[in-house]
Amino acid sequence: MKNALQHLLRPGVSLFILLTLVTGAFYPLAVTSVVSQLFPEEASGSLVSRDGTEIGSRLIGQNFSDPRYFWGRPSATAPQPNNATASGGSNLGPLNPALVDAVQGRVAALKAADPENDRPIPVDLVTASGSGLDPHISPAAADWQVQRVAKARGLTVERVRALVEKNTEGRQWGVFGEPRVNVLALNLALDATR
Amino acid sequence: MSNHAWILLGLFLLVLFVAAKPLGTYIAYVMEGRFRAGGKIEGPLYRVCGIRHDEEMGWLAYAFALLLFNLLGLLAVYGLQRLQVYLPLNPQGFPNVSPDSSFNTAISFVANTNWQGYGGESTMSYLTQMLGLTVQNFLSAATGIVVVIALIRGFARHSVKTVGNAWVDLTRVTLYVLLPLSFICAVLLCSQGVIQNFDAYKDVMTLDVTHYDAPRLGADGQALKDALGAVLTDPAQTQTQTLAMGPVASQEAIKMLGTNGGGFFNANSAHPYENPTPFSNFIEMLAIFLIPCALCFAFGKMVGDRRQGWAILAAMTVLFVALAGAAMTFEQQPNPLLTPLGVDASGGSMEGKETRFGIADSGLFAAVTTSASCGAVNSMHDSYSPLGGMVPLVAMQLGEVVFGGTGTGLYGMLAFAILAVFVAGLMVGRTPEYLGKKIEAHEMKMTSLAILVTPLLVLIGTAISVMLADGRAGVANPGAHGFSEILYAFTSAANNNGSAFAGLSANTPYYNVMLGLAMWFGRFGVIVPVLAMAGSLAAKKRIGVGVGTLPTHGPLFVVLLIGTVLLVGLLNYVPALALGPVIEHLLLWSGQ
Question: Which one of A3, A69, B272, B390 has the fewest beta carbons within 10 angstroms of its own beta carbon?
C-alpha cells in the first residue's frame, strides 16, 4: 500500500503543478492577450464617456430617481442601489410580505413622480433585477414613463417617444432574449437634446 | 408557453445535438489514445512528471490517483484563499478568507459544485480566482469525465484487470478537450461584452445622484444596531459608481463547459459582465450541455453500438424538455399578490430576473443549469414562483442525470440504466445484463450506493438543519419558503450543483462545514463505487445477445429508464417537496 502511494505521489504532484500553470496562468493570459486585440472595448468593460469623463458602462445599470430621467430596474444591492462591487438580487420569495412592501414602495414613488398616470405599472419597473445592475427596462416600462419625462423636460411626448424607439433593441437576431431599452443610453440621448 | 419559448427550446436542442455529435466522436478518439499528434506534447510532459503512460491501472489505483489529485487541489485552493493578502494580483487588497469559508469553497470547487458562500467581487483576489478557482474548474471537470471514461471502458473491455491510466486520461481531457473549447468560448463571450482584464476596480461619475441609507459603522468597522437589532443608518448620497473588473471571460468559459457554475461575481450569470446579451446567454446554456451531451455519443462509439448512446440521450432529452417547459410556463404566471398594488403583472415573475433575458431565456437557463450539475444562475431562483422554483429542485433531486455534470451525468444515468435492466430482469426472472455484461450482486451493491448516497445526505442534512438553531438562523424568507431554502441548499450541495435559494445566509461556520461535507461525500461517495463497478465490469467476460436479452437501445428501454429515474430518483423527495414548494403554491393561490 505504502509503495503504491509513493508510486502515485510524484506523478500526482508534478502533473497537478503543470496543469495548474497551464490552466491557471497560461490560459487566462492567452485569452487576455487575444481579446485585448480583438475586442479591446468589450474586454475593458464597454465604458461610456461624455466630454472626456467616464460616466459608466453601457452594460451596468445606474440608479435614477430624478423625474427628468427614465428610471431603471429597482436594485436590491447594499448599501446603495446599483452597487457594482456587490451584485445580487433581493432573494425575496413570492409570498414574502417584504416583497409586497418593497413593490408597494416603488409603486408609490413612481406615482408620486407622475400623479396623473393611473395605468398599471409594468412589472419589471417595480421588481428588483437579478444582478442589481440590470441596464435595461422593457419597452412597456419606458412607455409608462414617457409623459413624466416629457413634462419634466418641457419636450413633446412625440419627441421623447422617438428617442425611446431609437434606443429600443428587439430580440437579438430575432430569436434570443426580449425587446429592451438601454436606460443609460436613453438618458444620455435625452441630455443631449436641448 | 409562448411561441418565443418554444422556438428557443427547439433551436437550443437542435444546435446542441449538431455540435455535440462531432465532439463526442472527437472525445472518444482522444480518450482511446488515437490522437497521435499529441505525443509530441505528452512525451516530454510524462517524462518530467515520471508518468509511465503505457502502464494501466486497476480501479483501486485509479481511484487513489484521482483522490490524491483532488486532495492536492483542495490544499491549493484553501492555501490561496488563506494567504491571498500576501500574494500578488490583489489590486483591491482583499484580506484572507476565513478558515471555514475557505474550507467550504475549496471542497466546493474541487467537487465540481462551486457553491458560493462568498461574493466573488468583494472577497477573492484575481490570483485566487485564476490559480485556485479557474484551475479547479478545469480539473474537477476533467475528473468527472475520466471517471465516466473508465466506466465506459468497463463495458467496452472484457476479461481485463485495468480501466486506464488516470494521469494520462486527465492530461488528455484537459489539454485536448477542455482547453481548446474554453478558449473558443471565452473569445466568443468576450465579443458580446464579457470583460477580461487585470485592471483595478474603476470609478465612474454617474448621471444622477443616488440617495441611500448608509449603515452607521462603529469603531471596529461593524454596523451599529439599535436595541431591537435593526441596523442604524444615516442618509447618504453618491454620484460615483465603482465597477468591479477582472479576468472574467476565461473563467466564465470553463465555468460553463465544465458544468462548474461558480461565478466570478456574486450575481453569477445574471451579472451583465458575465452574461451581457441574450446571445451570450445562449452560448452559456449550450456550453453547459455540450460535453454531457457529447459524452453520450462518445459512449455509443466506445462500446461499439451508437444506438446505446442515442437511447441514453433520448431519455435525458425527454426529461429535460418536461423540466424546461414547466419552468418557462410557471414563471410566466403573474404573482397574484402584485396585481392589487396597481402593477401589470402579466410580464411574469420578474423579481430576480434580468430584462434582457425575460421569462423564457431565464426559465430555460434555470432548467439547463440544474439538469446539468452546473449551478450557474442568470436569475435568482429564490424569487421564482413556488412551482417554478420547484423545477430546479426536482432537476437536481433526480440525481443530476438529465445531461448532468461533465461525466457525472452519464455515469449517474448509466447507474440508473443498470438499475432499470435489474428491475426488468426481476420481472421476467432472468439474470440482468447490460451491454453484454452480466449484472450481478457486486454491481447492484455499487449501483445502490451510488444512487442512494445523495438522497441520504440531502434529507439527513435538511432534517438536522431545521432542528438546530444554527440551521434555522440562516433562513431569509418566512414560512414554507424558508424550509425550501434549506432543502435547496443540501440538494444543491450533495448533488454537486452549486446553485442556491440564495436568501439563505450560508456563509456561517455551521453551513460552511455541513455543506462542505455534503459536497465532498456527494462527490466521492459516488465516484468510488462507480470506479469499483468499472473494475468488476472490465474483468467480466462478454456474453452474446440471446433471445431473452432485453434490447437496451429501443423505445421500450427508454421508457423503462425514464420510469426508473422518476420513481427511484424522485420518490425519496416527495414528502420534503410537499412541505416546501407545494404548500407555498397552495398558499399563494388561495390568497393567504
Answer: A3
